[in-house]
């Protein structure tokens, strides 16, 4: 198969979202070389009021560590994974992260399903293709997948799947499902 | 063991605070650089560069992303962007936005990614 060689490497972004402690870091680590990326962000208006700034009124920046993974498909074609910061006060960072993103994985925990509502809303509004991966913390089963789809009121075409983020094969399956979904979204739009 | 924290060497943080490197600025022409934009060294390095700029030039001899540079230099992305903005203004590096190639809309590339993931 011929690859068109170009000077510019192709870099694709995939976002990993979901509530706190749902397995974002584990998923990124299962499938890629994970490294912490430090960002030091100016607190936005949206952050003010959520952050407790009493006594530290002068503080206008905050340090955020993001999970950052890289999968090299071939030389010049790299997929970057970004674990989105969980706290809602970092929404402003999501806008940058999701710009031009290939898609997103929303990890759901059936015991705390509401935690992933904001992520689902966000990607629906942005029109970013996403899949919902139900992490099997406590023996979630097929029934859980249907429950999750109903509870999240997802469009029929949004893939919902079970996964075990600790397992590489499972993490891979989630990524493949997402890219296939992005591809379908793309071809149906054309 | 003592209960009071003792910080030595790297644990005590950098000797030079990140924002001192960029003279307290948080804004530069590099603000808009995407995390996965590609950075390349161009031209010869002038002698009077600071150590961070030299590290960036060395790392960017082959194409490297903004995020990878931040990890390599262990600096916050905001600091890296300011440094990169200056360096681009001085013609030391080029920065290519990933969206310029319209990669999201490239069917062939997505198929390649799917195959590549399967082969992992």
Characterization of the model:
The complex is a heterodimer of chains A (190) and B (120). Chain A is an alpha/beta fold and 190 residues long. Chain A contains 5 helices and 7 strands; from the N terminus they run βαβββαβαβαβα. A 7-stranded mixed β-sheet of chain A has the order 2-3-4-1-5-6-7, with helices on both faces. The radius of gyration of chain A is 17 Å and the shape is globular. The radius of gyration of chain B is 18 Å and the shape is globular. In chain B, 38% of the residues lie in helices and 8% in strands. Chain B has a 3-stranded antiparallel β-sheet with strand order 2-1-3. In chain B, helix 3 packs across helix 4. Chain B has a single domain, classed as Orthogonal Bundle (Arc Repressor Mutant, subunit A), CATH 1.10.10. Chains A and B meet through strand 1, strand 2, strand 3, strand 4 and helix 5 of A and helix 3, helix 4 and helix 5 of B.
Keywords:
heterodimer; A: alpha/beta; 5 helices; disordered N terminus; B: 120 residues; mainly alpha; Arc Repressor Mutant, subunit A; 8% strand; globular
Q: Considering the protein shown, what is the CATH homologous superfamily of chain A?
A: P-loop containing nucleotide triphosphate hydrolases
Low-confidence stretches of chain B: none
Strand content of chain A: 25-35%
Helix and strand sequence of chain B: HEHEHHEH
Q: Helix-strand pattern of chain A, N to C?
A: EHEEEHEHEHEH
Supply the CATH architecture of chain A. Answer: 3-Layer(aba) Sandwich
- What structural class results from the helix and strand content of chain A? alpha/beta
Name the poorly predicted regions of chain A. Answer: 1-5, 45-57
Which pair of chains forms the biggest interface, and how many residues does each contribute? A-B, 45 and 39 residues
Annotated CATH architecture of chain B: Orthogonal Bundle
Number of helices of chain A: 5
Query: Would you tell me which CATH topology of chain A applies?
Result: Rossmann fold
CATH class of chain B: Mainly Alpha
Shape of chain B: globular
Total tally of structural domains of chain B: 1
Instruction: Tell me which oligomeric state these chains represent.
Output: heterodimer
Output the structural class of chain B: mainly alpha
Number of discrete helical segments of chain B: 5
CATH third-level topology of chain B: Arc Repressor Mutant, subunit A
């Amino acid at each position: 198969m011929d690859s068109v060689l170009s000077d510019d490497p192709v870099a694709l972004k995939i976002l990993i979202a979901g509530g706190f402690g749902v397995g974002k870091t584990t998923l990124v680590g299962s499938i890629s070389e994970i490294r912490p990326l430090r960002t030091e962000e100016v607190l936005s208006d949206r952050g003010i009021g959520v952050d407790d700034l009493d006594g530290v009124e002068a503080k206008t920046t905050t340090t955020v560590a993001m999970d950052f993974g890289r999968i090299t498909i071939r030389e010049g074609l790299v997929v970057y994974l970004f674990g989105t910061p969980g706290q809602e006060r970092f929404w402003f960072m999501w806008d940058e992260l999701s710009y031009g993103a290939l898609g997103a994985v929303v990890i759901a925990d059936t015991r705390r399903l509401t935690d992933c509502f904001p992520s689902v809303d966000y990607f629906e509004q942005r029109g970013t293709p996403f899949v919902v991966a139900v992490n099997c913390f406590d023996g979630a089963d097929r029934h859980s997948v249907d429950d999750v789809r109903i509870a999240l009121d997802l469009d029929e075409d949004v893939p919902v799947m079970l996964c075990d983020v600790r397992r590489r094969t499972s993490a891979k399956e989630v990524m493949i499902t997402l890219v296939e979904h992005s591809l379908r979204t793309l071809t149906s739009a054309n | 063991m003592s209960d009071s924290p003792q910080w030595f060497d790297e644990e005590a943080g950098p000797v030079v605070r990140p924002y001192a490197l960029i003279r307290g600025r948080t804004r530069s022409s590099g603000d808009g650089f995407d995390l996965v934009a590609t950075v390349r060294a161009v031209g010869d390095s002038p002698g009077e560069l600071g150590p961070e700029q030299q590290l960036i030039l060395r790392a960017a001899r082959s194409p490297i992303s903004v995020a990878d540079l931040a990890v390599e230099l262990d600096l916050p992305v905001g600091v890296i962007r300011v440094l990169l903005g200056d360096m681009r203004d001085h013609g030391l590096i080029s920065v290519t936005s990933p969206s310029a190639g319209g990669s999201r809309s490239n069917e062939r590339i997505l198929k390649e990614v799917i195959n590549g993931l399967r082969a992992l």
